[in-house]
Amino acid sequence: MEFCFLRILKLTMKVLVMLLLFLGNIKNSTAYFSSSSEATMHTNNWAVLVCTSRFWFNYRHMANTLSLYRTVKRLGIPDERIILMLADDMACNARNKYPAQVFNNENHRLNLYGDNVEVDYRGYEVTVENFLRVLTGRHETAVPRSKRLLSDEGSHILLYMTGHGGDEFLKFQDSEELQSHDLADAVKQMKEKGRFKELLIMVDTCQASTLFSQLQSPGVLAIGSSMKGENSYSHHLDSDVGVSVVDRFTFYTLAFFERLNIYDNASLSSLFNSYNPNLLMSTAYYRRDLYQRHLEEVPVTNFFGSVMETIHTDSAYTSLTNKNFGGAKTKTFLGQSFSSSDINSVRNSDDEDQFNNLTAEEDQHDEAGQCIFCAMDSGHLWSFILGNVITHESVDFFVCYGLVLMLPLLVFSTWLSL
Amino acid sequence: MEEISNFPLNPEPAEEETLQSQMQESTPDRKSMRTTKPGIKRLILSLTVLFSFIIGFPFLWKSIEIYRAPLPFDRIESFSSQLESDPLHFPCRFQAIFVGFDFSASRGLGPNDVAAAITHKMSQLNPNSLRCGNCGGGDYDVSVVIDSGSSCAQTEGSEARCPLKCGEVVFGGKLSDEDFDEMLKRCLGNVDGGGKGYSVVVFNGDKEEGEVRAVVGKYRHAWVLGHVSEDEAVSRTAEIFARVFMNGGNEGNSIRSEFMPVGADGRIVLSFSLLNAEPQDWIYDWSFHEIDKTLLQPVIQALQPIANITVESQVLYYTPKSSFSYWDDIHGSHIFSTKDLPFFLNSNEWHLDTSVAAGGRSKVLQLVVYIPSAKECPLQLELPNGDLSKTNGFISPMWGGVVVWNPESCVKDLESKDPDRRVISPQNLQKLFEVLMGQLRQLLGLKSDNLYVGQSGAYILLGSERGFTEWELDVLSGKHVCFNLHSCATTLGSLSRLVQSLPRMIIIDEIGKQVKFSLEAAKFAQSYASTGIYNASAVSSRQARSLVENAFFHPSIMSISYYSFEHCFAIYSPFFLPVTMHVILAALREWKRYKQENRKYLAWKAKERIVS
Question: Cross-referenced Gene3D superfamilies, in alphabetical order (chain A) (predicted)?
Answer without folding.
Answer: 3.40.50.1460
